[in-house]
Amino acid sequence: MHCQRRPAIVLSSGGLDSTTCLAIARQQGFAPLYSLSFDYGQRHRFELEAARRVAAAFGVAEHRVITIDLRQFGRSALTDDLPVPKDRDEKQMGGDVPITYVPARNTIFLSYALAWAEVLDVRDVFIGVNAIDYSGYPDCRPEFIEAFEKLANVATRMTTTGGRPLVIHAPLLRLTKAQIIQRGIELGVDYSLTHSCYDPTPEGLACGRCDSCILRRRGFAEAGAPDPTRYSA
Fold it and tell me: What's the rounded Cα separation, in Å, for the pair 75 and 83?
């Protein structure tokens, strides 16, 4: 799908999925592109430097990093002093919502994107959520995206006083990790710029054992492509 030239905001974590999402937005003709990242107290803050690298590589019009402190609420291995699950198999990942789930994270992120969209008069927001090869997060499901889009269109002056409605684009929603990687390779994504690990070493090496690392490794293997990640294990 190609669009007429119009701006879009892309939520960018610096990871594999959001970077592929940015490439898709560019390929579909959205311009200028704005990228939005969050320093929310996550233990894997190396992803923020990856997000900056990705923004520079794509030449986005503006890249913003919003600082919020989700450590105030905790209850997640990414924002609290809790161990990150390691060496889990597919069945375990597809079970209960894991401790790496950050309460209401995508709701918060999309709300910030909605606020910036209203300031910029942007009607398209991209998010790299995935409902197939993911770790069981409730805010990565299609029903969440559909519900937030409905909310967004009754929530702001921009969306309630005429003009085109706001659209939440989730182009990776029904793709496997291998399919996402294959799509990114087709679009020229340099995955060496990205960071996926939930529990990196102090030097920034990926652990190779958390859910995110396992899904990334498996995705590259199934895509038949080399994984440029530097792993510690």
Answer: 11
pTM of the model: 0.96
CB 35 within 8 A of CB 51: yes
Q: Angle formed by the axes of helices 177-186 and 211-223, to 10°?
A: 60
- DSSP state letters, 172-205: TTT--HHHHHHHHHHTT--GGG----SS--TT--
Count of CA atoms in the C-beta half-sphere (13 A) of 173: 15
* Structure-token pair, residue 75: 């209850």
Give the span between the Cα atoms of 170 and 188, in whole angstroms.
20
Say if CB 72 and CB 37 are below 8 A apart: no
pLDDT tens across the length of the chain (233 residues): 555 689 999 999 999 999 999 999 999 999 999 999 999 999 999 999 999 999 999 999 999 999 999 999 999 999 999 999 999 987 788 778 999 999 999 999 999 999 999 999 999 999 999 988 766 799 999 999 999 999 999 999 999 998 999 999 999 999 999 999 999 999 999 999 999 999 999 999 999 999 999 999 999 999 999 999 999 97
CA nearest to 62, candidates 51, 72, 73: 51
Q: What are the distances in angstroms from CA 14 to CA 58, 160, 162?
A: 12, 33, 34
Residue-range domains of the chain with CATH: 8-223 (3.40.50.620)
Three-class SS state of 39? strand
The whole-angstrom separation of Cα 17 and Cα 226 is: 16
